[in-house]
Amino acid sequence: MYSQAVLTALLAWPVVAAAAVLLVPERWAKHVALAASLVEFAISVPLWWTFRPAAGMQFVLDVPWISFWGIRYTVGVDGISLFMVLLTTFLVPLSVLGSYAYITTRERGFYALLLVLTSGMIGVFVSLDLFLFYVMWEVMLIPMYFIIGVWGGERRLYAAIKFFIYTFFGSLLMLVAILVLVSQVGHQTGVYSFSYAYLTAHLGGLGSAAFWLFGAFFLAFAIKVPMFPFHTWLPDAHVEAPTAGSVILAGVLLKMGTYGFLRFALPLFPAVALHPAIQAAVVTLALIGIVYGGLVAMVQPDFKKLIAYSSVAHLGFVMLGIWALTLQSVQGALLVMINHGISTGALFFLAGMLYERRHSRLIDAFGGIAKVVPLLAAALTIVSLSSIGLPATNGFVGEFLVLLGAFRTYPRAAIVATTGVIVAAMYLLPALQRVIYNPLDKPENEKLADLTPREIAVLAPLLACIVWIGVYPAPILRRMEPAAKQLIQSVRLDAATFTATR
Amino acid sequence: MSLDLTTTADLARALSPELTLTAAGMLALLVTAWRHTSARDLRIVGWVTLAGLAAGGVAVWWLWSQGARAAGPPSMIAVDAFRFVTDALFLAAAGLTVLASFDYLEREALLVPEYYVLLLFATLGMMLMAGGEDLMVIFLGLELMSVSVYVLAGINRTSGAAAEAALKYFLLGAFASGFLLYGIALVYGATATTNLTAIAAQVRTQSLAQSPLLLIGLGLVLVGFGFKVAAVPFHMWAPDVYDGSPTPVTGYMATAVKAAGFAALFRLLVEAFGGVAAWKPIVWWLAVATMVAGNFIALAQRTVKRMLAYSSVAHAGYLLVAVAVGSWPASAALLVYLFAYTVVTLAAFALLAALGREGERAVRIDDLAGLAQRRPWLALALAVCMLSLLGFPGTAGFIGKWYILVAATMAHESVLAAILVLTSVVSAGYYLPVIMAMYMKPEPFDQAHAGVRLGRPAAVVVAACVIGLLVLGIRPNALLQLGRESALLAPTPAPAATTATGR
């Protein structure tokens, strides 16, 4: 019972809760939203224990939806999507709690949208039907668009429409690619089906079309990741979004791009993805992302923008890990995805807390505040170190695995990527120094309030995860290993057969 | 039920919807002759019209449920599910327009009950047009519809813009009719018949596919229809006419008139010219030009009505994609898209009529700023309409667009599909600012939205349309079934699906 209903419950509950949030009085909205998101988290937690790593796709529910077009409502998770779902349900309650003081206008709308967004994000991670996946991929766009556009900073309108149009552009091309894929496979086999399992099992003979189809999927996912040079929407969206928006954007939305590569682009078009020219291009772009993201982050005066560019760099590691396609590198990539959600999420929370105190995001507005707000300073230090990838924090484990795995496939690329870790230290440590150390030279900063219990409640789970994954990642790695292994094998095997038969 | 159209009784049965509507039109005209002064008279005629439309709907439904089919030699009128579905669409669009007009006409002091009579006759013309199996019937239906709509466009005699719209529409419409009629004459010259199926038979047996006379005739017919459906480069009239006409009439023109044009065009091309390959590239290029120009020009518009006018040009482009593909999924997609588009556009224009307030001020997109705080439900409805026009998943607009894309990709028209989605991205650039203004910008001054009133009948129309859009966006199965069963072309076995229409 639980195993069939859980994913659908995870999809439906936030929508129901969103309606409830809209109906209660304004001042209760945030409490109801918090309770609802905690319930959502509680529904998802048993997944962790009941998940059987070796069993492949599980918690599957498969019912007809639009039979006329061969569309079914198919949901399920494996070792790749499990952690994305858990990360989402974990971050949403924290985002709600973190918005208590930040969001002061039209609260009902905000929390309702946040809950609807949760549904959309989980939908992307659990869909096993390409139509359902596309619908979810688009549907989560609208709440995010409103969250940025209504509750964002000064240039929110510009950021919101840029975010929307970039993503919409990529995803519509993916829509055409999905349709062409289904109709080609349908022509050959006589069955028109959007089922992921069916399509991956009947891929032969796409011929030269595969290249264009891969291109369309690549564009959609690369914009979302975002890979250099498609990243320009990200700094605007991150900077203008309210704290919760930034956290969800960095924590979950960016992972949809890399998840899309793992789940769709690679298994559907293995021969194209592993074509030497494509490999070279993707790895080069990933490396540019790592180094360029870091270098640009170094010169940002705005703390949120700095974090935004650091995301570009981190996601570059993920792309490198995915394309290296060894067990360590893929596991590492998955782990970086989780870590980035936790660490960067925490960084955005902290940036938001600083902003709520000083109403400035500029690094120069602070300085020496460690004396005034010791708890906040300690939290910021730990989170920054984890983002840099210091051993014994989560950041280290993921990036180390990526580099280790990538070294076997692309030794030179791994060497370049390693410099990215150094660059990370070069932009985060000086920023940290300028914010919390240095002399306390601004009188406004002398009376800052330290973390409130609510803020501690937001940060504590994140800090706990940073340490836990840093010290003992084995339970996570164990759960993702069979799925990663199976993905690598099938992609490599399919690529080999396609290349041989051509 | 098999109808032998050579006998009077069966012909009357086959024409029962049209006859019902004619009778209703006459009745409404009679009522108008006696009662044409007060708002109450206006309402009476409105309800008579609604009753007439409902009776016509019952007649259509009766024929449909009996599974009426024509037997015997080719005749003037088609008896098939395609006709019944399009008839139902026109009747529904007219009914919704009547409901949306109640408050509008009273607010604007347009106490002209003939308004409703003209709506009835225009609808009758559409039904003849879409059901015509003969070029002459199609032309007569088209003229009946056009003349009624010319008058409707200028029904507000005190408005300069309306007079301009009516005159422009009339002049260019007459011009287009000239093209069409000359084209029909040339086709008749080449094939010695005006019956659609007989033309197809002549083309086949006399191998006329390359005949210059026929091709020129076909080209002129395409030009004539291009004017009627506002395809680029024949769209010049559309924005001014849409802008100047009374808003509910604009909604009616953008939906029912366009749907009638497409239904007749599709029937004509598929039934009479299925064996002539020449129209495919022409329609292909018309579709591309219409999508590109419509979307890009809409980007530059500042008033909501003009923006919607150009957006309706863009939607004509999407529909032309279905026509250009011309396979059986495309004929089903055309119906589904027309249905979704009609529902959303009628709702959008009903909302716009309310937003225009007294005197029909031009509503700029910026004027909507802060509407969401003042009128949350109205803003929500308009936002859903915009998303559906954009083709966003979860709305019926997406299902329609998806279906056209399915048809295009199945017929290996991937380039056309790609152009369709790319121009759709452009359309986000003018649909989103409406949402943005309503939700993300502050009210420019206090009471900026005072006086925005959506009357009860219009509110019912909007609510029904918006709920319908959302329901069909999530569960479109019934609509798709309907589209498939009433498609003009029959499904063929999978491999032959794309070659069925002579590609």
Brief account:
The complex is a heterodimer of chains A (502) and B (503). With 502 residues, chain A is mainly alpha-helical.
Descriptive notes:
The complex is a heterodimer of chains A (502) and B (503). Chain A is mostly helical and 502 residues long. Chain A has helices at residues 2-23, 29-44, 46-50, 81-98, 107-126, 130-139, 141-151, 156-189, 196-201, 209-224, 233-240, 243-268, 270-273, 276-298, 303-324, 327-358, 374-388, 394-409, 411-436, 453-471, 474-501; strands spanning 58-66, 71-77. A two-stranded antiparallel ribbon of chain A has the order 1-2. In chain A, α16 (327-358) packs antiparallel against α18. The longest helix of chain A is centred in the middle third of the chain and has 34 residues, at 156-189. By secondary structure, chain B is mainly alpha-helical. Chain B has a domain at 278-495. Classes of the chains: A mainly alpha (502), B mainly alpha (503). Chains A and B meet through α6, α7 and α8 of A and α17, α18 and α20 of B.
Topology:
The complex is a heterodimer of chains A (502) and B (503).
Chain A: H1 2-23, H2 29-44, H3 46-50, E1 58-66, E2 71-77, H4 81-98, H5 107-126, H6 130-139, H7 141-151, H8 156-189, H9 196-201, H10 209-224, H11 233-240, H12 243-268, H13 270-273, H14 276-298, H15 303-324, H16 327-358, H17 374-388, H18 394-409, H19 411-436, H20 453-471, H21 474-501
Antiparallel strand pairs in A: 1-2
Chain B: E1 2-4, H1 8-14, H2 16-34, H3 39-65, E2 69-71, H4 81-107, H5 114-131, H6 135-153, H7 160-191, H8 196-205, H9 212-228, H10 237-244, H11 247-272, H12 279-299, H13 304-325, H14 328-356, H15 371-374, H16 376-390, H17 396-410, H18 414-440, H19 456-474, H20 477-485
Parallel strand pairs in B: 1-2
Helix pairs in contact in B: 2-3, 2-5, 3-4, 3-5, 4-5, 4-11, 4-14, 4-19, 5-6, 5-11, 6-7, 6-11, 7-9, 7-10, 10-11, 10-13, 11-13, 11-14, 12-13, 12-18, 13-14, 13-17, 13-18, 14-16, 14-17, 14-19, 14-20, 16-18, 16-19, 17-18, 17-19
